[in-house]
Write a structure and sequence with these properties.
Elements: E1 7-15, H1 49-59, E2 62-67, E3 76-77, H2 86-105, E4 110-113, H3 118-121, H4 123-132
Parallel strand pairs: 1-4
Antiparallel strand pairs: 1-2, 2-3
Length: 156
């Protein structure tokens, strides 16, 4: 196994939103009186429209992060209007992720793993990664219908 003994680096994205998803079947409250049920404000009916607009502008962002065994990259926040295309993703890999991986790995061998998002699996990105990272888990290794078992789902 070529990956044995190498430092494993995993990447993932997450979208922060102001409105949480409410599942009335799963969200339950044990109360003595119906007045004790918490009010859940939403964008459509915010408790404070001005504050909500500010919060939405600040916090509703997509971020990207990489982790290794014990280290987590400071999150990279994409601009709210920015679509994560192959070019945008490659820019982040070159200018943010690669320097961080080189620092963390201390020039030791490592394996870089990412999920099957379109920007990650484009030929442009795959070619750059194969030329510039120590070892890459290929896109065939992570099928689109597999469960997301990325370590970042459990630590960030």
């Amino acid at each position: 196994n070529n990956a044995a003994g190498r430092l494993r680096l995993s990447s993932d994205e997450k979208m922060f939103t102001v409105d949480t998803k409410i599942n009335r079947r799963n969200d339950r409250w044990l109360i003595h009186d119906h007045i004790d049920v918490p009010i859940v404000s939403k964008t459509k009916f915010p408790a404070n429209p001005r504050q909500h607009a500010l919060m939405k502008n600040i916090y509703e962002k997509d971020y990207y992060v990489v982790s290794s065994e014990g280290d987590v990259m400071p999150p990279y926040f994409f601009n709210k209007e920015e679509n994560v295309t192959q070019e945008v993703y490659l820019h982040v890999l070159i200018n943010v992720v690669k320097p961080w991986m080189e620092t963390i790995s201390s020039r030791k061998s490592y394996v870089f793993q990412q999920d099957g998002a379109l920007a990650h699996t484009s030929h442009l990105v795959q070619n750059w990664l194969s030329d510039n990272v120590n070892m890459l888990s290929s896109k065939e290794f992570w099928p689109p219908n597999s469960p997301d078992l990325n370590p970042l789902d459990f630590c960030v």
